[in-house]
């Protein structure tokens, strides 16, 4: 019985790493790459190598951030050093995460003009799509009490 359990686990482990080393298609100078990231740090953490390779090949790269990541309560604890919850703290966290994302992208070689921030509420993307589409009542975030986040900077 142990052999039967080990085989699928081993197969998944090998398959995962075999897939991870498959090379990307060659990036050409006239390529346009759009990276869609749910939160500000996701793009740089997941695609920094692709961004660097694309810029090396003179391809155009833009990053579309869906949210500012303001609803991450554990991150508020990390940044503030104490547990806090509320509209002001959440918006401040969104500003910090947006700023850090810009700094990381600058290190990678991207300019501010290559970054697009939609600033949708961090906790409500699926709910907005399923229940608040079109003329329905707008989604209101439980932490910020806002239907859209106004992150400055």
Describe what this molecule looks like in 3D:
The chain has 153 residues and is an alpha/beta fold. 48% of the residues lie in helices and 13% in strands. It is built from five helices and three strands. The chain has helices at residues 2-20, 40-56, 73-80, 87-108, 125-131; strands at residues 32-37, 60-67, 115-120. The protein has a three-stranded parallel sheet with strand order 1-2-3, covered by helices on one side. The chain is globular and about 45 Å long. It starts with a helix and ends in a 22-residue tail after the last helix. Mean pLDDT is 79; it is low at 1-12.
Overview features:
153 residues; alpha/beta; three-stranded parallel beta sheet; 3 strands; 13% strand; disordered N terminus
Brief overview:
By secondary structure, the chain is of the alpha/beta class.
């Amino acid at each position: 019985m142990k052999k039967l359990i080990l085989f699928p686990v081993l197969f998944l482990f090998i398959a995962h790493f075999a897939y991870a080393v498959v090379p990307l298609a060659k990036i050409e100078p006239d390529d346009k790459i759009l990276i869609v990231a749910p939160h500000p740090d996701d793009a740089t953490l997941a695609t920094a190598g692709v961004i660097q390779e694309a810029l090396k090949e003179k391809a155009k790269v833009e990053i579309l951030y869906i949210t500012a990541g303001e609803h991450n309560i554990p991150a508020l604890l990390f940044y503030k050093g104490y547990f806090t919850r509320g509209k002001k703290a959440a918006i401040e966290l969104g500003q910090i995460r947006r700023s850090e994302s810009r700094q990381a992208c600058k290190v990678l070689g991207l300019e501010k003009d290559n970054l697009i921030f939609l600033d949708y509420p961090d906790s409500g993307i699926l709910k907005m799509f399923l229940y608040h589409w079109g003329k329905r009542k707008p989604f209101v975030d439980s932490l910020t009490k806002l239907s859209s986040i106004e992150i400055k900077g």
